[in-house]
Design brief:
By secondary structure, this protein is an alpha/beta fold. It is built from six helices and 13 strands. Strand 5 and strand 6 form a beta hairpin.
């Protein structure tokens, strides 16, 4: 993936004069390919985490890379008191990154409860699908987990972007209802809806955090212009995915 931040100012003068005026009006984010998100929702003790634990290996078995996002309204702490990284944060660091050869973690201050689209755009890349736990009020497609011995009514309705129900009893609410243990069937549904026919030629634009609708003609025009400019750069002769983020001066 080829990524440009406002460091495009370090490129050649010809590149600057071509691309900066073209994208200056956006002052936002433009990228190719949107990672689909499916939220696993349900009331307390419904078994959301258990279902995600079953979906992930089935998706991985089929060759997909999966990211997960967990929503915690109560706050959390992933660091341990006394560790070097904890001391960095206590000393006032806004952002702390812990890195090793196998994995890394990012701890940073935030001033609002980010929605899933923002979390995807800022922190998640190189995956095929995002599964989220919680985020019941978001507008992403949802699979609700429902257990008859735990609850008397569903949390979501069909119009709440409800994709399916995973339950231990049949329910007829206008969306597919699969057995709560049928991970393969649920992944079949996710794969058919979001992965098999995933549109890889799409272009999307976010300006100041807001998604801006683009007609097919505009998408095609922007894509052609971007690919032409980027492919002229050394090392970018065959761009697959392109991201540009233009920040205020």
């Amino acid at each position: 993936m080829t990524t440009f931040c406002d460091s495009i100012k370090t490129k050649s003068p010809i590149f600057q004069s071509s691309i900066i005026p073209f994208f200056h009006v956006f002052s936002g984010f433009l990228g190719l390919v949107m990672i689909p998100i499916v939220s696993i929702v349900g009331k307390s003790d419904a078994g959301k985490t258990t279902l995600i634990e079953k979906l992930i290996p089935e998706l991985v078995r089929r060759g997909y890379r999966v990211a997960t996002v967990k929503h915690d309204v109560h706050g959390f702490d992933v660091d341990r008191e006394g560790k070097d990284s904890w001391r960095h944060k206590q000393a006032g660091a806004h952002t702390v990154v812990i890195s090793s050869p196998e994995k890394l973690a990012l701890i940073r201050d935030v001033d609002h409860d980010a929605d899933l689209a923002e979390l995807r755009d800022k922190y998640i890349q190189d995956v095929d699908l995002i599964l989220s736990e919680g985020f019941k009020k978001n507008n992403q497609p949802k699979i609700e987990v429902f257990r008859k011995e735990k609850h008397t009514e569903l949390l979501c309705k069909k119009e709440d972007t409800l994709l399916a129900i995973a339950s231990n009893q049949p329910l007829d609410v206008g969306v597919p209802c699969l057995d709560i243990n049928d991970a393969r069937g649920l992944v079949d549904l996710i794969e058919e809806k979001f992965l098999k026919h995933r549109q890889t030629a799409s272009v999307r634009l976010r300006v100041n955090g807001k998604e801006i609708p683009l007609s097919p003609f505009v998408q095609k025009s922007i894509r052609g212009t971007l690919e032409g400019m980027v492919s002229s750069l050394r090392g970018c002769e065959d761009p697959k995915n392109i991201e540009i983020r233009i920040l205020p001066d």
